[in-house]
Design a protein that fits this description.
This protein is α+β, with helices and mostly antiparallel strands. Helix content is 41%, strand content 35%. It has helices at 5-35, 44-56, and strands at 59-68, 73-82, 85-93, 99-106. The chain has a four-stranded antiparallel sheet, covered by helices on one side.
Amino acid sequence: SGLSASQLTSSVVTSLQPAIASAVAEALRNTQSRTSTSVSALSPEEEERINAQQSANAQYNYEYKVGDDDKQTYISHKEARDGQNVEGSYNYIDATGSLVTVNYQAG
């Protein structure tokens, strides 16, 4: 398709983000529906407190790898979250054949 490794990496990550966000939102809806049988309006302060509480306990791990020998395209990405701490890395083979690795941390 004529895409560079960087463009392909960006495309894959961009394509996966909505699916991940949707899965997380669905999981949160399911969790909330099991713990609450009535719906009530929350004040902005209550909502902020609950969001902070839920974020503090958030945990997930994911990883994917893409390899295409014909196009010489190789990409991987992994990320883990435990509460407020997120760390991960992604890598790809650039147009010169060099491995590019990015490690990141937040929290």
